[in-house]
Amino acid sequence: MKAKGVIKDAVPWAESRTYFFYLAKRRIAQDNYVSQLRAADSSLDNNGALDILKGMCSADWEDNAAVLDYYTANDADITAKISEMKTAAIKAKIAELEKELAE
């Protein structure tokens, strides 16, 4: 898994179940937020959406359990940011359409 880039370092067998549990839970939550961000603003790619989440996250980005705890505790803030981005994207689209009409 290290060769494929899934993990950064070898995981001791005794800790593997906990490590992969938090890794999977984090990725499910993170992928959900990324897809919501990309749906809100079609100009975003995966890396752009991840950068937004990284910027919001106060936890150690390399600690899966800490990031998952952050996502759980701050779901309302993340959802508000997604809504804010959707509103901004719609306003930008309206401005672009108005500009085209003026021409």
Protein model, in words:
75% of the residues lie in helices and 0% in strands. The protein is mostly helical and 103 residues long. Helix 1 (13-40) packs across helix 2 and helix 1 (13-40) runs parallel beside helix 4. It is elongated and about 65 Å long.
How are the secondary structure elements laid out?
Elements (H helix, E strand, L loop, with lengths): L12 H28 L5 H11 L7 H10 L1 H28 L1
Fill in the keyword field for this structure.
single chain; mainly alpha; 103 residues
What gyration radius follows from the Cα positions, in whole Å?
A: 18 Å
* Elements, N to C (H/E): HHHH
Beta percentage is under 5%
Largest sheet: none
Report helical residue fraction: over 70%
Uncertain spans:
none
Mean pLDDT: 93
Count, helices: 4
Kindly report how far apart the N and C termini lie: 55 Å
The gross shape turns out to be elongated
Extended strand count: 0
The secondary-structure class comes to mainly alpha
Summarize the structure.
The protein has 103 residues and is mainly α. It has 4 helices and no strands.
